[in-house]
Structures
1.
Amino acid sequence: MITLLTDFGLQDVYVGVMKGVIKSLNPDVDLIDLTHEIPRQNILAARFALMNAIDFFPDHTIHLAVVDPTVGSKRKALAIAFKKGYLICPNNGIFSGVLSKYKPEKIVELTNKKYWFNSNPSSTFHGRDIFAAVAGYLSQGISLNELGEEIKEDSLVELKIKPVIINSKEIIGTIQYIDIYGNLVTNIAMNMLNNKSWYLIEGKDKINNHLTYSSVNQGDLLALIGSHGWLEIAVNGGSAKIKLNKEYNDQIRVRFN
């Protein structure tokens, strides 16, 4: 199985072409679209989406992730083996959420042009000419060793996210993802709040925590633990992003009662 995650959208043919390359190499492989609506060039959003999807797929799944603002530059193209399967992606930190959960077992720079779709790839579409082709060959059983040169973990680009700060009175985190509903997903994990009574402070406002979106009136703010296991801020029937004018990496403060 191969999953695909990009910021390409579906208006253009880019996603379809990548699938065509994969199917031309392995007609029987299953292709699953994780999403192609990552906000354009937003590696942080792609990191979150990939990290939170991994555990819902069978072992040995190949995850093809292309959000690649520096395509055509000297950034490396990678294949990474980890406990649950493989990552095929640019070396720009898109994989850093996954690797915070699973240690990489082998990392290969994709230097063997034999397994590219085009040995002289387009400078703007490595998704087609390198990544899709490598995913197709890998799904056929080609080993990582054949795809290129093994590199060390310390050569991986790490996507920096401000660490969570915890003390006896509060937790300070940041927004790591904003979904299509405008829900603000923080980097504060559920286990940081277990057995505690808490609420959020946003300016002069106090935002209480609830179990469901419908626990408050239409248009009201609430905090809750989302299905992904992270603290999020929402508006029943509206957008917390718009109501609070928040963006990625903005600070969120949780207080203990």
2.
Amino acid sequence: MKKTKNIRTITAKFDKTKEYSVEEAVDMVKEFKFTKFDESVDIAINLGVDPRHADQNIRVTTTLPNGTGKDIKVLVITRGPQEEAAKKAGADYVGNTEFIEKFKAGWCDVDKVIATPDMMPELGRLGKILGPKGLMPNPKSGTVTNDVVSAVKEMKAGKIELRVDKTGIIHSACGKISFESAALVENIKAIFNTVLKARPAAVKGQFLKRVTISSTMGPGVRVDHVTMRL
């Protein structure tokens, strides 16, 4: 009941049908906080695409200027000299077949998996395990590469993948509620403009339908996308 009362109090403070500037929306999301933990701030971008068609699928990456606010655990699957290079770059775990076996046994204590191309034939067999968790390395997201040093540093610095789901929505974390408002606005604009540039040529009608930001436990606040364009 406590949560319900808090949500009712919060939603009475704003118009759920109105679109606010990104600066106003961020300030509202921060003001609405009623939990004790440091909630994530998330963005949902509703798009006029049909992901069932390959030419309307969106899968891109961007680096958040102010990071994600989360300590990203990175695993690098590789062999030989690349192992030492990955360790020096800051990877949390580095190895090859032993981690493939750990995944098979149910281990999954990582946020990102980077692999060199030579390891993909073995790692590719774990599609049913890693795919649903969003951990399968992919060249499009920069996680299948021979340049493991750059890949690890980018992931640690806040590189994220933006991928449209089957309902045509891109969901992404854009920081923590403890971030300064200006930092959250900057991260949100980076995400939005990356998606804007990724508009598929096959989309003929309205591309951007609705943009909403919210904290983990708070209500969604609609954002005027014009205020997010760079």
3.
Amino acid sequence: MLGWFDANLVSILNGFAIGSLLFILAVGLSIVFGMMDVLNLAHGAFFLIGSYLAVTFVAGESWGGFLTALGVAALIGLLAGGALSGLTEPLARRPILDQALLTLGISLIVAEVLSIIYGNDVFSVPPPPGLAESIDVAGRAYPAYRLMLIAVGLVLALVVWLVVEKTSIGALVRASVADREMVSAMGVDNRKVKFAVLGVGSLLATVAGVLAAPVYGARPGLDETILLLALVVIVIGGRGSVRGALVGALVIGQVESLGRALVPDLASFILFGTLALVLIVRPRGLFAGKVAHS
């Protein structure tokens, strides 16, 4: 067993790095879907915006360009989430398919605009200075940037959990989910709560796109691939659960990495086989959170 871990150490670490990226992307989508009952199929397109922002601002190995891309991505994510909140508000009491069609349309428009601006080329983005080198991990050379992604994902998981579970802001969001009418009667505008949650969720998507650029680059179609993985993470972890998003992301990260390293021809079957197995055992996901009711 130890020999197997040693032989596949790089793939296992890659799984944690991919899982961290998927968590940063999926936790926002999970909270928006699970708590606000908004199925945002434009989430992958927001991720792609972040990736192309990294292409735009990161010229060579530059902390300045990388941090600028993160800042611009955060701002655009907030604005996009606010706009999405306004667009979906009239559909709040209609079937969720209406929201899905609206956000899918937004996704297609965003992807087409990005394709017009950047073309259909595949772009690569270098890591910031100091993170482009490899570090010795148990005798294996491993990229420092990917180790940083693992750390960022774990820290963000702790921060989001603390905000949602231990602060007054999180309590307000949970109260809005449990009983919107009561919260509204107390003078709280539920639309502002929805605006804030969608804004933060979209911000996480665009920021994840910037962070993922040195790993995945930027290319047409990446939004669809990453959205599919994020949805699988949510279904496995349970919508509305921060813990579920983390566990689901780490599971899918390992399945993706080890599957493609050991049995590349069966990687997709293993991915969806894992999804099917979880759904058979836990139909609502491993750690299903509270779900909004209109």
